[in-house]
Inverse folding.
């Protein structure tokens, strides 16, 4: 199973594939787009960036050496993917191991679906649905067994949790259905699937 550090590495590589970034911009994008990393601190980000540089997957460049828009009056470090980093990212995005559909990793993998092949996307979505259905059934059994011993507020919390899981199951089923459809011409593109909140 991937650790949080592994997931953060993948998220960073995925963000850097579009363009080189300063650490500040990278953190801002990760916090804005990846729910799993909304509370990402510099204390987590910079050690991970350093490890990726040491591993040869990204490189750090001083902006004072750059003659383009990233250069500024103050020298700042810009990070960009190396050829090895691009290969690592492509290899990871082609995998659909069970860790890909666990909670934290799934959000990162889903955010990179535009760069993932259709077969891998489908396997990850189906794996995620199986995991969430298993969780739903376990919650239902637990709620049934403990119902007599729970107060009103605890029961409401259980009900709320089950409703959230039900919404995710419906959302995943919509996504899976859309993935299985044959491609449409751009002029006949189907409506996008519902979000988790809309499901």
């Amino acid at each position: 199973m991937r650790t949080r550090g592994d997931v953060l590495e993948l998220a960073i590589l995925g963000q850097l594939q579009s363009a080189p970034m300063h650490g500040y911009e990278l953190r801002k994008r990760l916090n804005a787009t990846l729910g799993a990393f909304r509370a990402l601190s510099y204390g987590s980000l910079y050690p991970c960036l350093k490890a990726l540089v040491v591993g040869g997957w990204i490189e750090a460049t001083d902006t004072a050496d750059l003659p383009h828009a990233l250069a500024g009056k103050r020298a700042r470090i810009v990070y960009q993917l190396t050829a090895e980093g691009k290969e690592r990212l492509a290899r990871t995005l082609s995998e659909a191991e069970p860790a890909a559909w666990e909670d934290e990793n799934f959000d990162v993998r889903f955010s990179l679906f535009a760069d993932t092949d259709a077969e891998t996307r489908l396997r990850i979505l189906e794996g995620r649905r199986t995991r969430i259905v298993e969780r739903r059934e376990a919650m239902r059994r637990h709620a049934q067994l403990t119902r007599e011993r729970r107060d009103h507020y605890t029961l409401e919390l259980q009900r709320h949790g089950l409703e959230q899981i039900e919404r995710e199951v419906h959302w995943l089923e919509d996504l899976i259905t859309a993935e299985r459809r044959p491609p449409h011409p751009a002029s006949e593109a189907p409506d996008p699937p519902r979000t988790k909140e809309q499901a």
Observations:
- DSSP finds seven helices and three strands in the chain.
- The helical segments are 4-16, 23-33, 42-55, 83-93, 103-111, 118-146, 152-180.
- The chain has two domains: 4-95, 117-188.
- The chain has a mean pLDDT of 85.
